[in-house]
Design goal:
7 helices
Length: 255
């Protein structure tokens, strides 16, 4: 099985990138983040013609997540359980397919909106930990993948790209990521590449791509049984070199 995740940074602007990539890679599932459109604006028919069922959780102009699935599925959640926000943003989609619970997430960045914005990030992390704990306690095979907006260690960002006060590296953010691992989830990339310096995001400014001044913020966390079956983890850097690319590239796991 092949699962991919990609923060596409506007699906309407880059749907041809996704079409071409799907033709090449043909994953069983593709998680998309930051689609930046409402449900009815998502180019569903394009992907249905390619053999994918489409699940969208969008909102106007910002955020938004979608899952493209080659397999039958059951929709579990469009809001992260236990999030307890009056007006939750479109940042989560959970389905069950082929016996696996698949959780697509776009975690808040946490750098905008002052302390309130950072607290929104921490609340999301807490709810994510609760959901992972529930699934693991019930022995449910699961994958949490998407844009976590967290660099777990200093190795996960290029020198001088982030300050110590950046929400992507603050101790509270990292502690949340570690708590997910302590529950029993496996960081898929580190299972395959324990020591390599690898990135999934390069900013549009200051020649970040050309200088390889990147960040590793797109992750796939696997429950124990899935982790045992993990065969490969790929970062498709070629997409960042295309015309008008997203600032993120696809990550792919095969199991």
């Amino acid at each position: 099985m092949k699962l991919a995740s990609w923060n596409i940074n506007s699906i309407r602007q880059r749907h041809t990138h996704v079409q071409q990539w799907l033709t090449k890679e043909q994953p069983d599932w593709l998680f998309l983040q930051e689609i930046k459109c409402q449900n009815e604006q998502f180019p569903t028919e394009i992907f249905e013609e390619m053999g994918y069922q489409v699940i969208v959780n969008g909102q106007k102009a910002y955020n938004g997540v979608a899952i493209l699935s080659r397999h039958p599925f059951q929709l579990n959640h469009t809001v992260l359980p236990d999030l307890n926000e009056e007006e939750p943003q479109a940042r989560y989609l959970e389905i069950e397919s082929q016996g696996v619970t698949l959780c697509n997430l776009y975690l808040p960045n946490g750098n905008s909106g002052g302390e309130e914005g950072f607290q929104r990030k921490l609340h999301f992390i807490d709810a994510l930990i609760n959901r992972a704990e529930h699934l693991l306690q019930h022995k449910q095979d699961c994958i949490f993948a998407g844009d976590f907006n967290i660099c777990p260690t200093n190795q996960d960002y290029a020198p001088q790209t982030l300050s110590a006060e950046d929400a992507l590296v603050k101790p509270e953010s990292r502690n949340g990521f570690y708590q997910l691992l302590w529950l029993g989830l496996t960081d898929a990339l580190r299972a395959i590449y324990p020591t390599e310096t690898l990135y999934t995001f390069w900013d549009y400014t200051r020649g970040a791509w050309q200088r390889n001044a990147g960040l590793r913020i797109d992750h796939a966390l696997l429950s124990p049984k899935i982790a045992e079956q993990l065969r490969s983890f790929t970062i498709d850097k070629a997409e960042r070199d295309k015309e008008q690319p997203s600032d993120h590239v696809p990550i792919i796991i095969e199991f």
